[in-house]
User: Fold this.
Amino acid sequence: MTRHLHTRTVRRRAAGAVGAVVAGLLCAAGPAAPGAVAAPGARSVAPRLDDGLARTPPMGFNNWNSTGCRAEFDQDMVKGIADLFVEKGLRDAGYEYVNLDDCWALPERDADGKLVPDPARFPDGIAAVADYVHAKGLKLGIYTSAGTKTCSSVGFPGALGHEYSDARQFADWGVDYLKYDNCNNQGVDAKQRYTTMRDALADATRATGRPIVYSICEWGQNKPWEWAADVGHLWRTTGDISDNWSSMLSILKQNLPLAPYAGPGHWNDPDMLEVGNGGMTDTEYRSHFSMWSVMAAPLLIGSDLRTASAATLGILGNEEVVAVDQDPLGRQGTVLSAEGGRWVVAKEMADGSRAVALFNESGSAQRISTSARAVGLPAASGYALRDLWQHRTSHTAGTIAATVPAHGTVLVRVSADARWAQYPPAVELGLDGTPLFEAGRSVTLTSTLTDLGRTAARDVSVTLDGPAGWRARALSPTGADAVPPGRSLRTTWRVTAPAGTESGSYGLTLRAVHRSAAGARVETVVPLAASVVVAPPPGVSSLGDLPWMTAANGWGPVERNTSNGESAAGDGGPLTIGGTVYADGLGVHAESSVEFYTGGACETVTADVGVDDEKSTNGTVTFEVWADGTEAASTGVLDTTMPAQPLSADVTGAEVIRLTVTDAGDGIDSDHADWANATLTC
Ligand code: GLA
Assistant:
């Protein structure tokens, strides 16, 4: 195979200042057979840019997720963000690029074919903003599209056919980063379009001395991970993220398998952060940030920091998590297991330690467990276990385990550290079974505290608390002088939700305190969700009319007896699959999960399932029925061309059933899914 090599001369410099030429180099190359696909776990050996840029994943800010094209996106905002990077310590934490997205320009080029900044947004021009940002020790990024126009419906000028002059204009302005989008591309081959801009940027760098990080944004459509390592420094792997759990989850699942393709100077980009934009809980945002870091993803803040809460700044500013992302070895973490929504993802670090994410995709707390050996650490008598959100260290004999709250992530860094004995033993604390209550009735639950270390946990005590009016009475000891290594303290509790409690989700808190041999006090807190439920009536019920326990949906709410619409409640039409209209059922949007309480009293779920006719292309989904965590029935991939498929599941004896719709692995775009005629027989 003949490999195309290209040369780029770059200069490395302090932020904002132009320094000396240090490298003039090109693709480092290993042999790769044409069309070779990296085996799981193997590193990609594709030719790479070797210009010294983006040796760790780019970090910074981009306005798109918070402002889109709204008027508040202007030079004051951009300068304000640069100010806050410095004031809030974010620059010191590693955030560097302040990036402009679409809508910074006027719709027309000037008479010389040059781009013109919108004078309403950038009255001082882009160069002035670049100077301002550079003076703060930061860098400036800009955006355009590898097409005739950008993605905004206003249609700002794209760079297709103007690559060299636009790249030169950016470099002259002092731009340090280009995001190059994919809209209005006129069907021109992607590799060709993105390579032309690479060469144009190299040319601009040669002429001006300004290196420019190159972010390819073709949404993963042409598998850029297979060809772009010597084209850009990062490439989007998916469609756009939006500020909701389902979108984040779907993108996470598409980006995780691409681990072999990432490394210094060539990163998978699962899109910018939504942390702080309000559509997810802080627990979910911590998962988003943890998983992006374990995936060595670019960390581009997508919320308006001028109005960010302390919690948002706390997440984005967690330097121990940022250090996972920015580790110089540059590995993207790999999935070790993912059963039942319990994900274990491990990332090898330059110091030999492993960052390990225990990520709970599911809607209830779950125990997630792995071991030092399974994450790739050598045999050792003990391991130091650093919790990167709690900021404390314990030791383990080898088990790495925690009860992880719904949608939460426990992120630890584990090392074979000879000093492990100076840390208290790690304990694992959890509750058996799902806390489900019918109001006024008591339920028996068992808590377990297990010593995972090599020394005893001393002066152990456990408490369980619920909301006001709830009772939790221990039926067995809640404390012990010592719990030896590998042993557990189990406590049985009788818990009662007061009569008249409305159905819904309520917080329970399981808490334990123990001491190490040296006397250090360690508190462990596990937040749990208890559901107050109503037993379903005997006979056949329409699921479109029964109360659910939980409902998660990719776009808008789950709809009763209509299709999903897309955004607001009630915006759907009649449930329609393959031209047939159905009066009852549920209209959802992948990724979706709806749970119903069945209390062990039901037998069968039936439905006619398919993609709703309100979408005519792109929608691809699978349907699954789960009975207490066991799959009871599923379909293959269904799309917009197919008629409804009958689905029937035996759910005999289940306490809880779950109706799940997946995106079939290709992202959630247009995945409007109907559970038509859905019934439950009890
Ligand atoms: C595309 C990109 C987004 C954003 C918008 C701007 O959708 O994928 O990240 O840049 O265009 O119009």
Remarks:
- The mean pLDDT is 92.
- The CA atoms of residues 373 and 379 lie 7 Å apart.
- The chain is about 15% helix and 35% strand.
